[in-house]
């Protein structure tokens, strides 16, 4: 049977969660329609062994693809090359898809509705499983109806919501930055640039585990990897200038990429205000002023504006003040609900 959906699972040292990620697929009645690629990114734990048990039992659905460590982007790049499905969707090895919604989603994809298909996603608490938010990524348009992207206002999807025709990724030669965190927005932006049409599904498919302490979106993770987001922003700005020709796609970039730039500034206020971090904040500010002056002007929260006026004197004081004022993190360093 023709594969409707390829699922590219980023799997790096996920022995504790991989079964939770894979078991929901077995609760569906559509295994023959799914191409599930478990892309082991050079794990040092039992990730590959767990994946092999599913591959052995269901060889027509699950595939273990092993590779040297290259980061999240490298798993997406490999998935794009290896995918057999009509549509392509990503899944992290500590998240999962809801089985009943996935069945209905696959049935919808069989109708080949549009280039992009956007479905709601849920974030949930990793400790107690309770739902935190449901994000629709639909700016108020009729569901299960095909629209031209140029006719959609306020469209800014996230990675967890997006599926795209696999052939468009290949024709567009889409590749994602490797050995780097925070490349999910890069994937969304480049995917959108390949598409002309979009439709909106009505049920949440992707369930996203809210990051625990030490993971990439925790305070410790941000402090460790913030320069990688800097790199992704530079890559995305360059790609936008060189490759984005349509106004509707530029609008998506202005929504998502500007938001990423804004978040990068906030990170520099939330992490420890060291001399090195101050140097990188100044460097980022100058880079953005040169390469994206409109974004630079739009980032105008008062603490940053004050630092710009004082040549960034008083950074440590203002950083501590803003971190305390914003209350974005719990005491153990996790993003607050």
Topology:
Layout: E1 5-11, H1 18-26, E2 34-41, H2 47-57, E3 62-67, H3 72-82, E4 87-92, E5 96-97, H4 99-110, E6 116-118, E7 121-124, E8 131-135, E9 147-148, E10 162-165, H5 166-171, H6 184-192, E11 197-200, E12 206-209, H7 219-243, H8 247-270, H9 275-291, H10 293-298, H11 302-309, H12 315-326
Parallel strand pairs: 1-2, 1-4, 2-3, 6-11, 7-12
Antiparallel strand pairs: 4-10, 5-12, 6-10, 7-8, 9-11
Helix pairs in contact: 7-8
Tell me the overall shape.
globular
Biggest β-sheet description: 8 strands, mixed
Strand content: 15-25%
Helix content: 40-55%
Q: Termini distance?
A: 43 Å
Count of DSSP strands? 12
> For the CA atoms, what is the radius of gyration?
20 Å
What's the helix-strand series? EHEHEHEEHEEEEEHHEEHHHHHH
Q: Count up the helices.
A: 12
Describe this structure in words.
The chain is an alpha/beta fold and 337 residues long. It is 45% helix and 16% strand. The strands form 2 sheets. The protein has an 8-stranded mixed beta sheet, sandwiched between helices. It has a 4-stranded mixed beta sheet with strand order 5-12-7-8. A hairpin with a 6-residue loop joins β7 (121-124) and β8. The longest helix is centred in the C-terminal third of the chain and has 25 residues, at 219-243. The N and C termini lie far apart (43 Å). The relative contact order is 0.11.
């Amino acid at each position: 049977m023709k594969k409707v959906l390829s699922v590219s699972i980023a799997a790096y040292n996920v022995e504790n969660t991989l079964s939770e990620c894979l078991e929901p697929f077995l609760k569906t009645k559509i295994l023959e329609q799914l191409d599930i690629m478990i892309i082991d990114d050079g794990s040092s734990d039992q990730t590959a062994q767990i994946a092999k048990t599913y591959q052995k039992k269901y060889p027509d659905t699950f595939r273990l693809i092993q590779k040297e460590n290259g980061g999240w982007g490298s798993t997406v790049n490999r998935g794009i090359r290896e995918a057999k499905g009509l549509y392509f969707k990503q899944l992290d090895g500590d998240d999962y898809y809801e089985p009943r919604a996935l069945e209905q989603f696959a049935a919808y994809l069989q109708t080949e509705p549009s280039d992009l298909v956007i479905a709601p996603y849920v974030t949930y608490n990793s400790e107690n499983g309770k739902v935190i938010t449901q994000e629709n990524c639909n700016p108020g348009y009729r569901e299960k109806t095909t629209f031209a992207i140029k006719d959609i206002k306020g469209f800014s999807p996230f990675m967890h919501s997006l599926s795209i025709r696999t052939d468009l990724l290949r024709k567009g030669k889409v590749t994602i930055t490797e050995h780097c965190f925070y490349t999910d927005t890069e994937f969304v932006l480049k995917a959108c640039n390949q598409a002309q049409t979009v439709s909106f599904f009505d049920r949440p498919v992707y369930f996203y585990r809210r990051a625990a302490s030490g993971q990439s979106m925790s305070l410790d993770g941000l402090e460790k990897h913030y320069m990688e987001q800097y790199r992704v922003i530079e890559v995305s700005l360059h790609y936008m200038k060189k490759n984005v020709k349509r106004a509707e796609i530029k609008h998506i970039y202005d929504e998502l990429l500007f938001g990423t730039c804004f978040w990068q500034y906030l990170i520099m206020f939330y992490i420890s205000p060291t001399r090195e971090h101050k140097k990188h904040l100044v460097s980022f500010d100058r880079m953005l002023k040169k390469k994206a002056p409109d974004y630079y002007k739009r980032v105008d929260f008062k603490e940053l504006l004050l630092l710009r006026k004082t040549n960034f004197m008083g950074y440590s004081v203002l950083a501590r003040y803003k971190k305390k004022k914003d209350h974005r993190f719990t005491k153990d360093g996790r993003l607050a609900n």
